């Protein structure tokens, strides 16, 4: 049976498109979510055309073989982890920018194009592809679409889904649909584009995307402020987003600041409860003025130290602490990066809850993230060889998700459900909404071959 | 049978919630799309709670009665027109703003709240609800959501769907789902919010929405430019959106300008091929500078006349011509307002195609709309008592949609498919994507009672 479908795959793919070598399969077994389980795949396919993806899905449907799509494998929720006996469908060979329309401000790309490659191609014609997940240099646009990836620019420019005009998608049965189009407004039919974006490979395989480009924003003015309490920092965030339009608004808590300072001394205030980093890209005098308004808000909220710069190099060095945050925490042990989001007014409560959980469970948790969106990444640091510590970290992870739901938030803001958050999804959605998810999944993938056991 | 379900409805609704008076039914039979057919309804229900909507849908499901939801009836595609023997479900009594969170920047509203009422409530706490369809003073938010309504601000701030954080929706079987939430980022499960937004009452009845508010933008600087050719105007639009971030970018063609000038002499250039109106809300000096950049772009593209003002009253008077456009065309005969969208680089070709069709079919067509989004409203003017003229107008309407598809555009940018565009939808979507629409519709409304015959 197994030999049978492998033979059929070999018949529809070029030799380099089908791999069964155990070492290669092992290398494609996981994404970056260490905590999540992974099965052993039976084969890896690497199609280079939509027609090949269709052929693969027809074989998979005929034999009911689970199909797990993946890009660069930089996901953080286990969404791309192999399912036992599955076919891994790597889209990295479909890596061409098919079109870049500088007049209508869109690009047509294949899913294996790196986010950074599109940014670069857009910059070459004076344009900008906004979405900027931390992984932008090595993650693929297909992966960004499958997870509806966020980033630092979202507070002003939205998430990946906000940059998508249309998609080409291969369904489980091998048929091809095209959603959306090339226009920025379009209400012809249901919004299938957004249904596929963020569906983590469970509803179809994205084989092409039409993505929106923008004019490059003016040079940014950068601000760093240091707060004696989480409540003060939270109040500053509320007042900044209610009054200005920051192009970046990030926060690091004390544990994160200390980890960064230990990793690379930057002269940060290690006694501050939180550090806030903000930018305005309003441009020229307006950018300086907007940043000054944010600075005034920070001071009114009780900031002990505020610094502002319109110099590009200086601005980058002010952001360096934030860019090192995760790396610095990783230096202290095994990390489990969480991803939660609350209404902005509940941010201080979220941070306090995480501090409380860290103390109670005796786990180091450094929290940083996109404060302007209420989207934070509490990062648990522990010794993976200490079973008791692992158990306490797991308990703390669960505690955080419970706290987030109590605060009216969501269990994932930008990393996705994958395997890590799956046990919590139904709790957030409730029975009726979960049932509707299953109804849609069953309608679109009746054999259940697309990334089974993920998300739902 | 009919008496049976009416009795059951009477049992679950208060007396004022159920109406069978023929005059009242007649008044609720249509939206604003004169061209579209309308059936005769059997009854009108006016629920005031989600529980009542559920009860109504349970009765409708049990007896397979078609249900047509409506708000203010200001739709432009026939989407809210009665279906023969249907139940009209008016949501105008569910008109409360349930919550307005000025710290987390969202409002929770019932579907019958007027767009203008939310704008006003937001303004009272210093905030802004961005979406601004032309009907904002009298259309309901539920209707805006059902059609994913656009407006003038979209070019910078997006469409209605971009302002939605979460929904409460009653499904055909009377069950209630909640989608999204209260956070600006959320990837927990499928994006069901966007699936319901723009689905024109065919997938569920929206009974509550959590809508995003924003800080009020700074005062705008306004620009008007006059162009000798459509190609020059189109080139200016391309260069403006590639270089700046206008908060409004509208266009009126010669036929529209002449209609406005005939209706109300404003001193407009009636020989110009097109008039462009633009705004920057970057604020202060930056707004003036951004508007000056747009003015320079217009001049470089060949504008014969450019005027700019940062005075609020003067800015409004510069926009007056655009605000009178549809009214002025309506004074000239029966109008059929079309709504199409093309990639911005194809705008001049679209306008030329419409002029060509108008000449060939001997129909007056005034075209105006949201140039920055490529979303235009060719408006056919004819004598509805002249059968030959009506036939030529119908032919011109069809010609325009064909031209738009040839230009890589969409048959509707912001008004919806409803009944008017239904014959063209499958042509735009193609067979496979149309089939997926039917699959989803059948999965979510298996009895087909929700607004049957609309959209699909």
UniProtKB/TrEMBL annotation, chains A, B:
Residues covered by the FAD-binding PCMH-type domain: 37-216
Cross-referenced InterPro entries: FAD-bd_oxidored_4_C, FAD-bd_PCMH, FAD-bd_PCMH-like_sf, FAD-bd_PCMH_sub2, FAD-linked_Oxase-like_C, FAD-linked_OxidoTrans_Type4, Oxid_FAD_bind_N, Vanillyl_alc_oxidase_C-sub2
Keywords recorded for this protein, A-Z: FAD, Flavoprotein, Oxidoreductase
Tagged with keyword Magnesium: no
One Pfam family here: FAD_binding_4
Domain of life: Bacteria
Cofactor(s) named in the record: FAD
Molecular function in Gene Ontology: FAD binding; oxidoreductase activity
UniProt cross-references to PROSITE patterns, sorted A to Z: FAD_PCMH (PS51387)
Record-stated family: Belongs to the FAD-binding oxidoreductase/transferase type 4 family.
Identification of the protein by name: FAD-binding oxidoreductase
Organism: Cystobacter ferrugineus
Lineage: Bacteria, Pseudomonadati, Myxococcota, Myxococcia, Myxococcales
